[in-house]
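pinging the channel bc i need a second pair of eyes. not urgent but kinda urgent?? the chain im working w is below, pasted from the shared doc
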Amino acid sequence: MKMLKIKLIFRNLIKYYRKISIYKKFLVVSYIQIFIPIILIGVLSFRISSDLIFKKYVGYTSDVIKTARLRIVDKINELNSITQDILYQTELYNVLDKSMKNMDYYDDVTSLTNKFRKIILGHLDVQSIGVFTKEKKLCIVDNTSKEIGLDEIIPSQISLEKVYKIAEMGNGKPIWYVTLLKKDKENKAAVLITRCINNPKTLKFEGILAVMINTELFDKTFSELVAEKSQAISVVGNGIFISTKGEINKEKVLKFMSQIRNKNGIVTYTSNEYIVNILPIKQVEWYIVTSIPVKILFRDIDKLRMWLIVLCFLSFVITSAMSIMLSMDFLKPINAIVEATKRIRKGEYKTIENLDRKDELGILIDNFNSMVVKINHLINSIYKEQITRKEAELKVLQTQLNPHFLFNILESINWLAQLNGVSQISDVVIALSKLLEVNLKEEKFLTLEEEIKYISSYVSILKINFGEENLKLEVDVDRKALKLRIPKLLIQPLVENSIFHGIRPKGFGRIFVGCYIWNDKLAIIVKDDGIGIQPEKLKGIRQNLEDNSEVLLDQYERSYTRIGLVNVVKRLKLIYGRDANFSIESLPQRGTTIKIEILLDALSKAVEESLQEFSGEGEEVNV
């Protein structure tokens, strides 16, 4: 009897379910699916999450400390390489040699200072560079934007003798040294790289090189990695805290560090107050330390309990609202299909409004619309479609014939000019054909050889206005560089700019275009002997180019210079980024020189990316 009653109740429920609307069916199923999981999730989440919070903090700090070590090691290797590059400077050995012989080495110091200044400007992590002998300092260059440099440290706070002893420990290799500096009643850590300077010819010891590192590089590393306010992180060297983010118990950390025996992996210390992770940096015998208060973990667990209750309630409300919206979303296209089928019965072949759906209902509506369109097509549209297709074919043929037709006309003019002995017209027509040929190409990149030919054709046309003797073009290109591919029309705007702003006001002049491969870079030089640029105006142009803003010019100049300079600089930045460099130099009445430098690797990489993009576009069209 009980089984029969249960079966009867079950059957009645099924009958009732089949009778109710789809909207109500969605709501019933949704509430069942929402209520049961929320209860289970609320009960289990608290126990599971409390354990996960602790593991999460420990695991998170382990990842942070490993990432910080990787970044610091990369910086250490990079800065060691910089010191090695400094030892390759011939001016360095000239200064040391002349100082030992008591000769005047002022000019050599000036040249060496310029080299050091370029290194400091190119590497923000380098704060100061100095060269010393046992008796005196020979050359010190500081980054003037920083407060402390080697001038304030050696020999006032660190003696030359001590610096020598530190450098000798490396036996020619770089030695990292950390010390505390006293300034304005505050102790600040200073990081130095010292290494011996041995004469490359005689291998004799002649002096030491000292490089002071900007400790802000550690602060930046930590600020990017550590987002938790409760977490503290430090880098410690020679028992000195070089950089610290957050509050940390330095005495306990130093005590923990003295007990470390594992020189490779992370060492974790847990107390009633803190969880401390320590990771050695073997390259410089430093340590990275993270610290988290234990009370923060329990505070988060208490918050979790409250938030779980709130979230369960919000989840019920939100999911209920979403269920209602979902049911309405399903009913809308179903009702639209029902209404459309009724219209078809009446002979109205109209498609369903685009509902922008990609699911099964969207596919059903698309198929329904396709069916209606095909019916209309078979009944009413065959004749119109044939006419439209013919017109489209004619437009395509016309588009294809126009460039061919233009080249045929130019070729006819060329033959007429040669038959009538007018060689100048023939030369201009040939040059114009070459210009059109390059402009009509769809490639984004051309070989340097094609770009030079384009420039030669362009200048040969301009000689008609200037005169053959008043406009000269000189080209000097490395053979190895001829096949390198550069952005289309990269050099021509610079040549045009030189002609119209440097040579045209003067009436005559010479333009030099040089392309060379040097130091793994392609160097492009465009130089003219025109009227040049006034210093104030040149300064404004440089500033505008650096800020990616348009160059403010007179009405006469605006059509050329804005396109010539701004366009080239923006294209270089967009295509090559920091791998390309643009510079402009000019003197009044002496001419202007523009130089572009692009890494060879960046040239090939940009071409490969362009080919991949072109291939991707082709695939989309085929689809």
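so The two ends are 65 Å apart (CA to CA). and The first strand starts at residue 126 and ends at 132. — does that match what u expected or am i reading it wrong
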